[in-house]
Amino acid sequence: MLKYLLLILLCIFSLNQKGAANTKDINEIDNCLSDLNYEIQKITNSYSKKLLILEEKLKLIRLSMNKQNKKETYVQSFIGHIILRDSISQLLFLRTAEIDKVRYSKGIEIIKILYEKSLALDHHFTTVNTLNDMHKISNPNNFKEFAIAKQQFEYGMNKRQGFNLGNILGENMYASIIHSMISLFSNSDIRKSDKTNMLQEIECVMDFTLQMYNDLNTVYFESVYLKKGNKDLILDLEQLFTDYTNPIKYKTSLNECRDSDDWLTINLHLDNFINRLKFLRSSELSQLEVSNMQIDLDFSIDRLLHFIGTYNSFINDSRKFYEKFAIMLDSYENEDLCNEKIPQDFITLKKSINLTIEKFDHTYRPVEITGSKMKQLLYGVGEY
């Protein structure tokens, strides 16, 4: 009894783990964006209190200046007014710098997540059936029943009228089937009833391979096309990372950063960048450099959003391809009648394609960044 209870608990745990994994895949970037919104609100609220105090003081000074009659007192109030305005301007800049730091940091997290998704997808495409696997499923020469029947058809055939296929045509599906039919019907040593029985033995094999040969080849070649598209996507993402981290002077490639788990070093470079930005702004040494640094940050985030659009398009297109694959492989009309003759690899392929469609909805799901989430990344605007 205890043994069965343990088995039941193990099954429940496995299902929960699977559900948790799917939830993690779906919510990974959503959680990242929720954290971004939280951090933006936290920074905004922190600076709002300080700004409110300074703005109240500024309002009082303005009222005082309007009532001042003495020149000296007015000048002192005016100087105080300028100092307060500068202080407010500096606080607004510091708030923007802190928000930009969070936006940029979350951008790195999104790149990291997308890279893992793209690598996982690349691994999936690599494990998709090879062309040889597809031929094994769709060529009747690879079926034991057909190979035996071919030998029987050709045995005792009129040598003067018959002919043998060469190695190349012998492996060709269409040539092999035509040759086998000619051999069967032209072989006078085989009785009509035996020919009927022989044909019944291989009719499912021939029907399946003739109907599914082109579809299986389409699945293979379009999978290769998708794999190449994903390779290009990975290269684009690696280049994006290089361009994204260039302003903060981080020179390690995305692949090397991932392999060495060097993400904390990026944060150090970002801290140095933001600290220099604050220093230049407060000291007024080079406002042009401040402006250029700000533009570099904004441009990097803008490029990330552009890539997200490219990633979403690829995932959506890939899912449509796999939906088409599923429809094509489900279109075999005689699957129930020929169930015993259909190769197990074909059944496995169908299951794999349906599983991949589920993964496109979970593991590789497009990144939904619209409305307020788009504003958070683009402009650092939180939800209030």
TrEMBL record:
Q: Which UniProt keywords apply?
A: Signal
Instruction: Tell me the first and last residues of the signal peptide.
Output: 1-20
Source superkingdom: Bacteria
From the Swiss-Prot or TrEMBL record, give the protein name: Uncharacterized protein
Q: Which organism is it from?
A: Pukyongia salina
